[in-house]
TrEMBL record:
Protein name, UniProt field: Camelysin metallo-endopeptidase
Transmembrane segment boundaries: 16-36
Keywords: Membrane, Transmembrane, Transmembrane helix
Species for this entry: Actinosynnema mirum (strain ATCC 29888 / DSM 43827 / JCM 3225 / NBRC 14064 / NCIMB 13271 / NRRL B-12336 / IMRU 3971 / 101)
Amino acid sequence: MPKHRAPRPPAPAVSATAWTVGAALVGVVLCLTMVLRTSEAAFSGTVSNSSNSWETGSIALAENSSGSALYSSASDGRLTGGQAVTRCITVRYDGTIASSATIKLYGSATGALAPYLDLVVDRGADSFTTPAPGCATFSARAGGVFRGTLEEFGATATDYASGVGAWSTASNGATVAFRFTITVKSVAEAQNKSAAATFTWEARG
């Protein structure tokens, strides 16, 4: 005969109170976890370095001719072969950037006479007193700035990068004198011709 097993006692009933407590505990744990994570994300710290400011200096040049041409047919008349005309000009640095500012000379030349005009440019001493109109008091530095024709000057010293006679300023108000000598070549091809030129000093720093 098959054996009869005694029936298992019924599982104790879980009261509604127990489920409520359990659910409440779980809810508290989840709530605490969420609160902790939210609190961690809200923590922050900063440090600032304020009141920074920048200001640029200026670079400016002036020359003592007041914008008048060094040479002009009106004042020099018509030139002849072998004739030389010398002029001096003083360039002054008026900027506030001194130690790193470098000044160079360049220019342009046009006209059929340009190949027949020999140009010599010399630089005088720094902080030089404005020379007399005929450059009688000018004292040139060794080496010179440019030797060639006016046409060659206009073709080779065309901008700051190719400029000549570079000099660095020591302070605001520093001056340098330059002497320009133009000589007409004694050749028949130089007759009845004209030329024009612009001489430019540029400072960069």
